[in-house]
Amino acid sequence: MLSAPILVLDSALAGLRLIGRLRDKLPEERLLFFADVSRHPYHVRSVESIERLVRQNLKFAGRDGFKHVVLGCDIASAVLAPLPPGWTGVIDPAARAAVDAAGSLDKPVIGVLSSTPAIERRALERALMKRRTRARLHLRPAHTLAMLAEEGRDHDDPLLILAIEQTIRPLLDRACDVILLASTSLCTIRTSIASVAGPHVRVVDVADAVADDVARRLTRARLLRPASSHAPHAPTLRWMLTDESPAIFDRAERLAGFELPPPTIVNTDDLDQLPSDSRLRPTA
Q1: Hey, which residues does 10 pair with through a beta bridge?
Q2: Are residues 135 and 45 in the same domain?
Q3: How many domains does the chain fold into?
Q4: Last residue in a domain, options 172, 206, 240
Q5: pLDDT of residue 174
Q6: pLDDT at 88 over 90
Q7: What angle (nearest 5°) sits at the alpha carbon of residue 132, between those of residues 42 and 97?
């Protein structure tokens, strides 16, 4: 079980941001990333469809075993909440990090950028209010901004800056103390968002919060790999894509911020033929 990988599932390439954070925080761990890019975006799909896709991806990517699952998609995290043991989504870590960022403020004003379906599910809203009942929340959809971020644009790209200004202006007008980036896609442009928001607003990156949560859970369960436990030249990252476009791979490396090994290309026809496994527990 200790040698089994941490499996990261996402509907897009932004989950590579999580991979980078996990590499930094848990350098001894093996990581397996599955990006369902050809069936992205999930926000246009029904709840039943999202559940089916996640279960198919889990069954395929996790067929050789895993010790923990990270669900990087905010929509899927909201749909499947509450998650079973052995899983980390974005909801609880995001809420915990936003409340921590608010510090000792009695009635903090917390702005949230997420997808419309995730907001409508209200899972993050409930998680925030559970931790800080006197907080004032302003949840704002940011799908267009997330799409621009996933294109791997430069941080000073004029169109990106304009989109950020238009997206967060309502939150700044409401004097938000904290802006929570509840989508991993938005975490790739955190620096640009923080620059526009100004020095008096704490911008919280959910990728950091998720990596912290995974480290805490594995430590508590005594599932961390011991130091120097890798075999010589053993790969610490494997990843799978449901799209073989060269442009996708180039964009993935820009988003990851580090050199990636060649991906395994997965045919979605093979995924569609899989029964959607109802078992959502780790298996080594």
Answers
A1: 35
A2: no
A3: 2
A4: 206
A5: 96
A6: yes
A7: 55
